[in-house]
Design a protein that fits this description.
By secondary structure, the chain is mainly β. It contains no helices and 7 strands. The chain is elongated, with a radius of gyration of 15 Å.
């Protein structure tokens, strides 16, 4: 049995989490994206709607963090967050019998 976490991730009965596009292992049930590739850039790289310097609104450095499948580079998650914090978005599924 497997569960679709979202359009890009699938959790299998053994707890492994794979990319739904290329089947590459990206994590496990406890940490679904621990093997994913992460990049951090300036928030302005998120697109034309992000124009102002984040320093005008925050006391800490702000980054545009993107998480990709390490094999096929499908974008798994994107967030604009304080650069000194770990991702606040968390996925966790428990497969019951």
């Amino acid at each position: 049995m497997s569960l679709f976490i979202d359009d890009n991730l699938e959790q299998h009965s053994d707890g492994s989490v794979t990319c739904r596009h290329c089947s590459h292992l990206v994590g496990d049930a406890a940490a679904p994206m621990n093997a994913a590739r992460v990049t951090e850039t300036a928030p302005r790289t998120a697109g034309p709607s992000v124009r102002e310097d984040a320093a005008l609104f925050a006391d800490r450095p702000i980054v545009f963090r993107r998480t990709f499948c390490p094999e096929c580079l499908t974008l798994l998650q994107a967030e604009i967050v304080p650069g000194d914090e770990v991702s606040a978005r968390h996925r966790s599924l428990i497969v019951g019998a």
